[in-house]
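Its record is quoted verbatim for completeness.
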Amino acid sequence: MRLAFFISILLITCCSYTIAHRPAQAPHFTGSAAEASPDAQILEVFTDSTHIGVKGQCKIEIVKYTIYEDAYLLVKFYTRTGNSRWYLQDTYMYETTSLQSLEPDISDYNNDGFNDITVISATAARGANEVRRLFIYDRKYNCLISIVNAEDFPNMQYNPELDCIDAFLVYGASTTVFAHIAGDSLKIFAQVANTADSVFVYVTGKKGKDKLIYKGPGAGPYIRHSNFRRLKINGEQ
């Protein structure tokens, strides 16, 4: 798959960052400063109960902390009915290599009318690649879904033109990747790759195989696109 090829180039040509899809084991810490062990240091805390999911009925708490020399993200999602007490619905814990602040972005990433959230979760050596974890609010089950491969999609954003998520990978050249949310994963369906003088458009089949559907002259190696069916540079009307 071409995305894996471009990611490998990105990681080989730069210092690699750690991707942790499984919850990290971090003992002696549950997220509260009062409950932290002497070895834990809280770096940043983010809380929201007015914008994510069903407004006023959902709450998220994110704690970035260290234990010894290892850093972690602890994500807790709560729900309630009316003015009842908060009920802990989901808990996620990840190791992180990010040197940046969380910089949370609460917005609708799947066009269902309910806000989701992303936070910076790793540091890529090439500064043009911002790596985030994505959490999608699921209204049907009133829960928060962690998208397990979100860190493979740097500079992600919601694409209203194609009703999908697109990402922008910067290495020696660049690739715009278009993906749909499927369960707890992002599934690629198209890519636009740019080199210094050429552009290549690929579509991805159900079995994950890429097919080249267009090759032509390009506008430069670092061009982000918002459409692959008719090539359109991001931001153009």
The longest strand covers residues 58-67. The chain is about 5% helix and 45% strand.
